[in-house]
Write a structure and sequence with these properties.
Length: about 190
């Protein structure tokens, strides 16, 4: 058995083989993980300070579900009688095609003198599911293969949005195709 004395215990560093020389892959992995951590810490604050997209629905606030039907006359809608009895009474179905903006078509359903639903068709994949959450300040509650459902706390309408490009994996970055606002009978609590 070898005796440990002061001379063998304190060997010069040149005679020992450091661990990072024995396993260079460990050094590579360490630097790689450290780099990812630094990038993550640098990018995360930038993502939190990103500006919210402008609200594209502000121009149409006066024609949302629950508003009087007379509000549609102020906008350039073409209306016809709706015989589908979707809301249990015959109503009026109106369509507008804006010349500018992110919506290519807007349709409204009116019955009993009140706007019951409003549907926006998004053009050019300019609005995403995440944008809709931020703009409306409402939370996503259901995810389906081609559609998502939102619910607004304290508002008297629900929101359903259909997406483009769903490939089996849901993402807040999926572009929207249609956004429908429908009136509900009682305000949510």
């Amino acid at each position: 058995m070898e005796q440990i004395n002061h001379a063998t215990y304190l060997q010069p560093i040149g005679q020992r083989t450091p661990l990072f020389r024995v396993l260079p892959i460990l050094r590579f992995v360490f630097f790689l993980l450290t780099g990812f951590a630094i990038v993550n810490m640098a990018v995360r604050p930038l993502m939190r300070t990103a500006a919210a997209p402008p609200n594209p629905f502000l121009a149409y606030a006066k024609i949302f579900p629950g508003q009087p039907a007379s509000a549609i006359q102020a906008k350039e809608f073409l209306c016809r009688s709706d015989q589908t009895y979707y809301y249990a009474t015959a109503g009026v179905f109106c369509i507008a095609t804006p010349a500018d903006g992110i919506f290519s078509q807007i349709s409204a359903s009116v019955s009993d003198g009140t706007i019951r639903s409003l549907t926006f068709i998004v053009g050019n994949k300019t609005l995403t599911v995440g944008d809709l959450e931020v703009v409306l300040g409402i939370q996503l509650i259901h995810k389906f293969p081609q559609a998502t459902s939102f619910i607004g706390s304290g508002k008297n309408f629900t929101v359903k949005a259909s997406v483009i490009g769903y490939t089996g994996r849901f993402s807040l970055f999926l572009p929207l195709q249609t956004i429908s606002f429908s009136q509900i009978s009682a305000p949510l609590r």
